[in-house]
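Hi Y.,

Following your request, here is the sequence exactly as I used it, all 536 residues.
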Amino acid sequence: MLCKDLIIKFFKDKNINDFFYLPGIHTISLNESFKRFNIKVYMGRHESNLIFMADGYSRRTGKPGVIFVTPGPGLGNIVSGCMEAYGDNVPVIVFHIDTKRQEHGKGILHELKDPENIFRTITKKTFYIEKIEEVLPVLNEAYETATHERKGPVIISIPFVLLDKEILEGFLSSLKKDLKTEGAENEVSLVDDEIVERIYEIFKDKHMPAIIAGKSLMCEEARPLIDSICRTSSIPFFTTTGGKGIVEESMPYAFGNVIKKGITHKMIKNADIVLAIGTRLRDVDAKRRGVKIRDLIHIDIDETWFNKNYKTLYAASGNLLNILKGLKEIFKKRRFQWDLHALKREQIKEEVDLWKNNIGYKLIKMIRDSIPYETVTVWDLNLISYWAEYYFPVYEQRSFIMPRGISPIFYGLPAGIGVKIGSEVIPCLTVCGDGGILPNLSELSLIKKHNIPICILIYNNNSFGILEDALEKRYSIKTSMQLTNPDFVKLAHAFGIKGKRIKTIEGLKKALLKIDWSEPFLMEFEHPIFSPPWEI
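Below is the corresponding structure, written out as C-alpha cells. Let me know if you'd prefer a different format.
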C-alpha cells in the first residue's frame, strides 16, 4: 500500500469521507488517491476558510474535521482556525504536506524552518513524520489525541516525498497488531463513585441547587440522565453558550444560557449550591457576563480550569456520564424547593417584555419561529448573533454553532458550509454580519460547485455594528466604523445562486418561511444598528 493510500484508508475506516483541501504542487499526488477511494474533497479558495469548514463539520458531526494544506503560506493561513479549534476544544486534524527537511536552508520553495513551532501553543500536539514506518503509529496517536479527553486540533507534518512510497503489507500488518489496545472506557471507576458520594454529602443540607452544563456533556446519552435528575428532583438546568442544545430548552427545568439577565441571574445568585459539570467556566462563559455563584462544585473532564474564575467548594475530574448516572440514583428520592413551573412562567413573561421593547430579541424570536424545528444554525459575531447566544431556543444537540474559542469574526459562512456537509438532509441557516462575510464570499464558488443547500442570511448595517454602537455610546464618535459594501444579492447571482434583499422584519419572516432548503440561497437583510443584549 502507498503511504497516501494508508492515510486515506485510515479515515475511511473511521467513517470520515469528507476532506477539506486547497492543492499545491506538493499535494497533487493526493488527488489520485482521493479519486480512487471515492473521497468527497471540498476544494476551497482560502485555507482560513477551509479550516473553519473543518471546524464546523466537526462540531456538527462529532467527528474530527480533516484538512490538507501545503507548506509555507498554506500552513500559515490556518493559524486563526487552529486558535479557534484549540480555544473551543474542537477536534480538527491538519495534514501539512511538507517540503523535505533535509533541504531546508537552501532556499527551496515554501521553505519554513521548524513550522510546527508556530502551532505548539494552539494545538494539542504537533507531529512530524520522518520515516515511512512512523505513518500508522502517528495517525493513531494523532486521532486519539484530537478526539479524546479535552478535544482539540493536531497537526501532522509529512514530507511530500513519502506520499508515493510503498509500505510493505507484512510490515503494516505487524504494526496494526502492535497498536491494538484493550480497555473498558465505560466502566464506573472508584474515583467516579467517590465524586458522586462527595456531591451527595454536600447536597444533604442544601435546598436550592442549580446545574450549569457545558459542551463536554454534548452527547445524546446525557439527555435522559439530565432529564431524570432535574425533572425528578426539581433542579433548574442552565448551559453555557457551547452547551446550548444539551437538552431541549422547552423542558420545564431548562432555562437556557446562564448569561441571561433577569430571572436567570437571580436564580443562580440565590442557589445555595451550583453544580457546574462539563464546562470550563471561563471568564467569557459566565463571569464576564455578570454570573455570580455563591458556592460551587466544579466537575470536568480534567483539572485545567478549576478555581480559575470561581472559587470552588469542591472540584474533581472524572467520567462525566458515569457521574451523571450516579447522581440520577442519589437524587431519585430527593425533591428540592424550587417551583420550576412558576419560574418558567416568570421567564416567559420576561421574554414577552423583551419582544415588545428590543429589536434584537424580536429578530431572533422571528427567525426561530420561521425555520424548521430541526434546523442547524451557525452564527458569526454580529448583533443578531449575540442576541441568539442569549435567547435563541435550541432543541437538538449540535444544532447551535457559534465560535467561542477566540471568537473570530470570519467564521460563519465557511463553518456553515462544513456544518451543512456534515448535516446531509437537515436544513442549515448561517447568520453573518456584513463586516464578517465579505472576505469569505469566494466560497460561493464551492457552494455552487457542490450545490450545497445552505441558507445564508447577511445582516447588513453597513458597518462593524457592535463597534459602531460601542464607540458612539462610550466616546460619542459616529460613523468611524462604516463600511462600503458590494451588492451581496448581485454577488450571489454572479455565482448562479438565488438571492433576495429584505428591508423589514416582516419581510424577513416571509422570506424565511418560503425558503426551499434543497438549494443554496442568500438573503441580504438591511437594518440599522440596535443595542446588544448585555445593555438591556
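Confidence is low (pLDDT under 50) at residues 181-188.

Thanks again,
Q.
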